Amino acid sequence: MKTRLIAFAVIFIVVLIGAFFIFSTAPTKDNPTSSALPTINVGEKLTGESLDGQLLFSRGGFLWAWRGDTGLRMAIEPGASVIAGNQPILLQATLSPNGATIAYIRQDESYSDLWLINADGKNPRRLTNNRGPGLPRSQGFSNDSLWAFNPAWSPDGNIIAYLTDRGTDDLTLWLWSLKNNNAARVTMLGAGQGGVGKPSWSPDGTRLAIAAYQNGKSQIFRVNVQNGQNAQITESDSGAYDPAWSPNAQSIAYVVRKGNLSELWVMNADGTNPLLAASVPSRYPAWSPKGDKIAFLGLKDGAFELYTVDFAGGVTSNIKQITKSAHLDSNGGLSWSK
């Protein structure tokens, strides 16, 4: 079960690198949306080009925040692993719409969980309970453990979309209600085909854009969150993934495979008018809060760096490398907030 499941994420990484070498409460609504997230001084920092707002990403298995022209590690610790001497990794952090809470993934031996923590770095709490019974690294432990990946906040901050293999051999799309403290599957899209990847909400909260395997390729679909009905909106010869809905609802940024390479593209939200945005091998596009830029992880000299590209009037321009020699985690996610 685990081998098949992880294939969705691993294939993306191989494709990108190939060209170079082969309990919780809902957040309160009165918290500020632009306060700086807490970071710690660990004797190192990243510097580079200046950006507005805050970008969250993963580096070396820890969560980092980029503000202005500096990146610092966030004050969130992974805790002890179920395997002595190992360290769990933290990834795919995203800030709630009101700026009060961070959702993120904590990945350990053969399982991962969805966690929340206050934006001030206090009160970490686990939502899912995916660790299997028995001894770690035993067959039973591995078979009964589950994965959780790619949390995405609904625009009203009451629901978190995420991916899990609960009840299937592949990752499928689920919604966690913070008001009701429970989860429900939205659709079986991708089950038995290879699973699904990173979801992204429409600004009105009625739909999700998601990558899903069908007939051996991943394509971008739009999914109705109320009834699970879906529609495929890409037809890429080699596959498409990592959708990101623009703040004005008009566009979706995504990644297209081109053989052993990948490229950043932008299309209308209905799938029409696809436009090449950057030929840099790419992952995890994230729109700026104003919708005038797209950040993404780009492969440079065999390692991932932070890039941006400007977007205005349906046209992209000015590809800029923000970090140098940062070596960001390829599956760590990327989110942009005020």
TrEMBL record:
Question: What is the designated name of this protein?
Answer: PD40 domain-containing protein
Report the InterPro entries cross-referenced here.
6-blade_b-propeller_TolB-like, WD40
Known SUPFAM superfamilies for this protein?
A: DPP6 N-terminal domain-like
State one Pfam family annotation: PD40
Family assignment? Belongs to the TolB family.
PANTHER family listed in its UniProt record: PROTEIN TOLB (PTHR36842:SF1), PROTEIN TOLB HOMOLOG (PTHR36842)
